[in-house]
Design brief:
The complex is a heterodimer of chains A (about 700) and B (about 290). With about 700 residues, chain A is α/β, with parallel strands linked by helices. Chain A is built from 27 helices and 22 strands. Chain A is elongated. Chain B has a single domain, classed as 3-Layer(aba) Sandwich (Rossmann fold). Chain B is built from eleven helices and eight strands. An eight-stranded mixed sheet of chain B has the order 1-2-4-3-5-6-7-8, with helices on both faces. The chains are: A alpha/beta (about 700), B alpha/beta (about 290). Strand 9 of chain A pairs parallel with strand 8 of chain B, so a sheet runs across the interface.
Chain lengths: ~700, ~290
């Protein structure tokens, strides 16, 4: 799922080549984002669009040869004139008289051509890693390989792949080599995958035609230099210092010759919009606001000592479990610090729970891109590849971080508490100068683990992500003022972070405090069970089986499997009553009906039903299974396929408690399901006791920072 | 030792009065930091000068009656228009065509007259806790100007001390009281000591002359209709001299920007210098574009 979708999309026909464009937001001025084509398309702006469109109007498009645009194969169709014509046509079609143009790599040259031919349409220019002819010095590998462009080389390697024949016959090899060279920053696997995927949406033939066409129409050196000099508009050049496509000297000269601003990003390569989205977002925002000459905004500033204590709580919306545990931590925290004001930056469905509890939800919450929607979109059947889903959430995390950062810069919070607030943790480590307030990191698992089906590559990826996290914390220990593991050391999965990386438990014990588990509710005493059952409408004779699948879209598959087994189980246990809870995303009427089976969309205080059930059938999520553990109920749990957290971390933790019976979704047929249900239902269980003071312990650790 | 010594210092004579000025820094933009009530002199800008002078040219000067300026007692020299003429003389002496003009308290009255009478010399105006007749005073200060010429009570309390006779008899005690009110923030011993020390360099005769100054030609409620440049107002919510609503009104009438300083008193430039410096810089940067 994207972090933001365009308000308007369209195509403009350019002599038979369709050009696809998108329009976002309605602010002032319009920013026109030009991708370099055909090597890539408009999606390279995915880290910038959500932020910029919140403040300005954004128009972007796919250059000819890639994305949603046509794929002309003739070099002539990729000339300067053709590309310049596309820019004008998109400005016209999107009703944009004038724009601040933002261009990457060689698209910067087209932007210069646009500003030269149509100065009235360009208000200012942001050139990112600009590929502008004659300036600076070209990278030697371009110069060395150019003479061999038309040759057929015998087994070309590396930069030798830069010729027509290799583009056509070994398109992927070239693209992978090229972006591998460009992403000089460690831990760039996701950016690499994206760049390669987008490049491969085009073809080798079109890429070669684009390369040849680029030269058509570029004027002689003197003319080009005259164009640069007569650009009578504000410019900002952003350039990665280690860029191996466009030498940074080229960006420096462009900034000098246009008399504009220059931002050199040290340690960065050719793809700063993808690899340094936060800094690039902020630089563009600053530049555009200066252009607007926005009059000084009024403000209210409180003397430090006049301020009330304030915390901003971020509660992960992935799985509703966090909402209740975070609420209980907040309640305990208020007992220790009665004057503490807590504001929540959270999104649906967490906000529903918070609003019911009378909590204060920060209005910027509505700007957040939906993480739970993304997770739902990644799920299918009884499967959620949780690690890949998190990786593919990258643009949502940047978008939401930018919202968060604006909130903390204005809010003067003493404290930020992030319960698995991945965006804050990641981007404050990547941009440590942006940290505001003391920072608490809460999580219930540490370490990405590869699923066996993912093979060596997934093992490489999870290790790379773990290594980046370990390096973050080693380099900037000041970012997490307190890291709290919601659990105990024994709960930590006994594995290493990856080859040559520390053991997860050793490292976590060195870097975390342990609060014990936080259920967020009090389980009934044995004496209360009957009372609760009575309140909920369950009599003591019947055997109540609750089936629940949580709030995300995954769940139908398991519900259907359990319901199919219900008649079989009912034959063996006639007093079996089943309550299946579908959650908000599944229509109860869409499931089969049986006597003795109730299918309900929503059950208030579901934890109370679970706590007095005779059996529960659930997925492998931590919150629900631990509620059942705390309440000493028998249960069957089915970890989602390819969900590393449910298959490794949660299962290991439940094993520590001796709780639940783990089931494999794929190999469970209705007979096995019925057998498991009938043997478990009403069984007397003795799990290890779950602590009840977790929230208080976590609150105490947090309160030390205020 | 001062944090920044002036690059140039001198005197300019206007209307027969010698006014001491100082120039710091070399930036393209000039900031003119105005004098305020003559009870203190230009050292009250000491927390701003070193910071601002790293980026801009900064000019401070003493008004009549204190600091390095003549101790004069002619009331006409203390009128708002007279202060405006002083400021022009200082800018001329420093060869400065245009400046951002910053005034604190009564300096707000002077700054607005400068902007209204000499618009071509002013890039923008910043008013800090402006003392202007734009809103009712707080109850404890109501009517103090009416009683200033009367004998003071036997056991004067609080604003009873705002009294000519009392100033002559107990000048230091008045200064200590007054700056205790100015610095309503806790833990302000050093700012109070500084200000009382500066007050002792002047004297009651000058306060008496200023008390008798002519009313401004254009009342405060109308002066903003004559000002076109951008206006910034910085005002503390715990200002016991000029209530926050005066600043709100100044911002409203000028269509300017209001920066509210929650918990700050009458001289946030001294007590919250970092924030005030940053706000001034932000204001000046935008003007410089």
């Amino acid at each position: 799922m994207r972090a933001r979708y365009p308000e308007r999309e369209g195509f403009v026909d350019r002599d038979g080549v369709e050009v696809h464009f998108e329009v976002y937001g309605d602010g002032e001025p319009t920013l026109f984002l030009i991708p370099p084509s055909p090597i890539t398309h408009s999606r390279i702006w995915k880290g910038l669009i959500p932020h910029l469109a919140r403040h300005y109007r954004v128009v972007t498009f796919d250059g000819r040869g890639n994305g949603g645009s046509g794929r002309p194969g003739e070099p002539d169709a990729h000339s300067q004139e053709a590309n310049l014509g596309d820019l004008v046509a998109v400005l016209d079609a999107s009703d944009t008289p004038k724009a601040v143009v933002v261009a990457h790599c060689h698209a910067s040259w087209w932007a210069v051509a646009l500003a030269t031919a149509h100065p009235e349409r360009v208000e200012a220019l942001v050139a990112i890693e600009p590929g502008v002819p004659y300036l600076g010095r070209p990278q030697p590998h371009w110069v060395e390989t150019a003479p061999h462009w038309d040759e057929v080389l015998d087994d070309p390697k590396g930069w030798e792949l830069n010729n027509r024949h290799s583009y056509v016959t070994r398109h992927r090899d070239w693209v992978e080599f090229f972006f591998g060279e460009q992403l000089v920053e460690p831990h760039s696997t996701k950016q690499f995958e994206d760049a390669v995927d987008w490049a491969l949406e085009s073809s080798g033939e079109v890429l070669a035609a684009g390369e040849e066409g680029f030269e058509i129409g570029v004027p002689e050196r003197d003319t080009a230099m005259a164009w640069y000099r007569s650009l009578n508009l504000p410019t900002l050049t952003i350039h990665g210092e280690l860029d191996v496509c466009q030498h940074v000297e080229r960006g420096r000269e462009f900034a000098r010759i246009t008399g504009g601003d220059l931002l050199v990003v040290e340690g960065a390569g050719h793809l700063t919009p993808a690899r340094e989205p936060v800094e690039v977002n902020r630089a563009i925002r600053h530049f555009v606001d200066e252009l607007k000459g926005v009059s000084m905004p009024g403000q209210s500033w409180a003397r430090g000592m006049s301020r009330r204590k304030k915390a901003l709580f971020l509660s992960s919306p992935i799985g509703l479990g966090h909402a209740r545990r975070d609420l209980s931590v907040a309640q305990e925290l208020r007992k220790i610090e009665p004057d503490l004001e807590i504001e929540w930056l959270a999104q649906h469905p967490v906000t529903t729970v918070l609003a019911e509890a009378g909590e204060t939800i920060h209005p910027a919450s509505e700007w957040l891109a939906s993480e739970s929607g993304h997770i739902a979109s990644e799920a299918a059947g009884h499967e959620l590849h949780c690690f890949q889903a998190l990786r593919r959430m990258d643009e949502i995390l940047v978008a939401n971080f930018m919202v968060f950062q604006e909130v903390v810069e204005e809010g003067h919070y003493d404290l930020v508490i992030g319960d698995e607030a991945w965006d804050v943790d990641y981007y404050w480590h990547e941009n440590p100068e942006l940290k505001r307030g003391a920072n608490v990191w809460l999580t219930d698992f540490v370490g990405y683990l590869p699923m066996p089906d993912g093979g060596d590559h997934e093992a490489f990826l999870t290790a790379d992500y773990n290594a980046e996290m370990i390096e973050h914390i080693a380099r900037f220990p000041r970012i997490r003022d307190r890291a709290i593991f919601v659990g105990n050391p024994d709960d930590i999965y006994p594995a290493a972070f990856g080859p040559d990386l520390p053991k997860i438990r050793d490292w976590t014990e060195d870097h975390f405090s342990f609060s014990g588990y936080i259920t967020g509710f009090e389980a009934p005493t044995p004496g209360q069970v009957e009372e609760w059952r009575h309140d909920l409408g369950y009599d003591s004779e019947e055997k109540v089986c609750i089936v629940t699948v949580g709030g995300s879209g995954v769940g139908r598959a398991l519900l259907e499997k359990v319901i199919a087994a219900y008649p079989l189980a009912q034959e063996l246990v006639p007093e079996l009553r089943m309550v299946a809870v579908t959650g908000p995303r599944i229509e109860p009427e869409s499931l089969p009906a049986h006597p003795g089976l109730e299918v309900r969309g929503y059950v208030g205080d579901l934890y109370r039903h679970l706590a007095v059930s005779d059996l529960a059938v659930v997925q492998g999520g931590l919150t629900t299974t631990m509620e059942l553990t705390a309440a000493q109920r028998p249960f069957l749990y089915f970890p989602l396929i390819n969900h590393f957290e449910q298959n490794f971390h949660v299962r290991h933790r439940l094993d520590q408690y001796g709780a639940g019976r783990a089931m494999d979704y794929r190999s469970t047929d209705p007979d096995l399901m019925a057998e498991a249900m009938t043997s478990e239902v009403g069984r007397e269980v003795r799990y290890r006791h779950v602590e009840t003071d977790g929230a208080e312990r976590a609150a105490r650790m947090i309160s030390e920072l205020i | 030792m001062r944090a920044a010594e002036p690059d140039r210092a001198g005197h300019v004579e206007r209307a027969g009065v010698r006014l001491g000025y100082e120039v710091f820094g070399h930036g393209d933009l000039t900031i003119l930091l105005l004098p305020t009530w003559t009870i203190i002199h230009c050292r009250f800008w000491k927390m701003q000068v070193p910071y601002l002078a790293r980026r801009y040219q900064v000019i401070t000067y003493d008004g009549p009656g204190n600091g390095r300026s003549d101790r004069v007692t002619d009331p006409t020299l203390y009128g708002a228009e007279s202060y405006a003429a002083d400021a022009m003389a200082v800018l001329d002496a420093c060869d400065v065509e245009r400046a951002v003009v910053v005034g604190l308290s009564m300096g707000g009255q002077y700054a607005t007259r400068i902007a209204a009478l000499h618009p071509e010399r002013v890039l923008g105006v910043a008013l800090i806790g402006p003392a202007m007749s734009l809103a009712d005073p707080d109850p404890d200060r109501a009517g103090i100007f009416d009683k200033v010429h009367q004998p003071y009570p036997e056991d004067p309390q609080g604003w009873d001390k705002y009294n000519l006779a009392y100033w002559h008899d107990h000048y230091q005690d008045f200064a200590e009281f007054f700056f205790g009110q100015v610095f309503s923030e806790r833990h302000s011993t050093k700012p109070i000591e500084d200000a009382v020390g500066w007050a002792l360099e002047g004297g009651p005769a000058m306060l008496e002359a200023e008390e008798a100054r002519p009313e401004p030609e254009v009342p405060d409620t109308e002066i903003f209709t004559k000002i076109d440049c951008p206006v910034l107002v910085i005002h503390g919510t715990k200002d016991r001299i000029q209530p926050h609503r005066v600043g709100e009104e100044a911002a409203r009438l000028s269509q300017g920007t209001l920066v509210s300083m929650k918990g700050s008193g009458h001289m946030p430039n001294v007590r919250d210098p970092v924030k005030v410096n940053l706000v001034l810089r932000d204001f000046v940067e935008r003007l410089g574009r």
